[in-house]
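Readers outside the structure-tokenisation community will struggle with the description of the input data as it stands. What matters is that the chain and its backbone geometry are given together, residue for residue. For illustration, here is how one protein appears when written out as sequence plus structure tokens:

…
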Amino acid sequence: MKQLLWIGCLESDEEFKIKAKKGYDLASAQVSQQNILNGIERVNGGIFDSINGSVLPPYPVYEDRIVQEVVWSHADGAYDVSVGYKNDKYINRVNCKNAMKRAAKTWIKDRYQNGELHVLVYSMRSAPMATACYIKKRIPSAKIYLIVTDLPQFMDLGQSKLKAFLKKFDWMSIKKMQRQFDGFILYASKMAEILSIPDDKWLLMEGSYDNNEIIDVHIEDSRKQKAIMYSGKLDEQYGIRMLLDAFMSIEDSNIELWLTGGGNAEGYIKECVKKDFRIKFYGFLPSREDVLKFQKQSALLVNMRLPSEPASDYCFPSKMFEYMATGIPVLTFKLGGIPQDYSEFIYFIDEETQEALSQALTGILYKPGNELIDKGISARKFILDNKTTYNQCQKIINFIKR
């Protein structure tokens, strides 16, 4: 590949921390973009420029009404910009899109080298897609590829009637722009069906595991305390209430439930902590290293995305990579977005009920220690052999070259 351009919502490390304090909460998107961008650079040898637009809640939920432009360089020779725009309600996305297109015009004038250009666009949103289509119009030979992590119709659920109305028009625009893209990197295979993408135009890549987070694993079955752990978004829609109720129905004083993170289920969690001494709620831990440390000390890691969620067939839970790489056994519901080749490495809950979850928890924790160790280690090996950033980015490069 020749010249590379990234279009998304990437921030500099410093700016991400500043925005996070003001109400920006897309940490997973930040990590995902860094993994792919840096991974392709390592595998391919080229360096990306990037044009970005922050996906912020409108003022005053996000405390700044005017978002300032930020320019930085993530690597020697790179030019990165996160555009500035007015963050007013209902029109902030349009303002961001227009600012990104202006940045693209400037980039073409100042940075384009009049040769082969490959553009990777992160997420199926109007602003980055419109920016890529603008570049395609100005540079017809450019190849543009869309990374689809989630489908727009399953984002921002529970919105107002006005926003839902505007979203329908946005979806029509997105579908029209989709036709201009040369290829698609999908996080779930069923996305191809709902988006009507021909088989030869898409690649399945559920995400990646950052090689730099590879940790030493020393699994022992000598612990008297068996801890079930859930870390991440503690929202009602992710089945947190079901997890608590299922756990409290288990009568075993040697089992604990560890919860880290935050969300709208915190009130119910605190009520349950008062009722059951075995439930430990730690909130947001100081660092990612602390989260990984807790995970390594647990006996079972639980993913609580529910099959009844409208998006469950069209997304891959990013938490799965992190969980499986620890070498600790993983339990999850059967979701349409989890490929079949994962089935031998993780435990599944057969039905979306409290009873089925409770039975799965006890059934796994009471299995022979060697079986649990083997399950966790095989899952870890599967991730490190197949799903590291290097492996996944090599697939993207091969797809683009093809």
In short: Residues 313 and 337 are 5 Å apart (CA to CA).
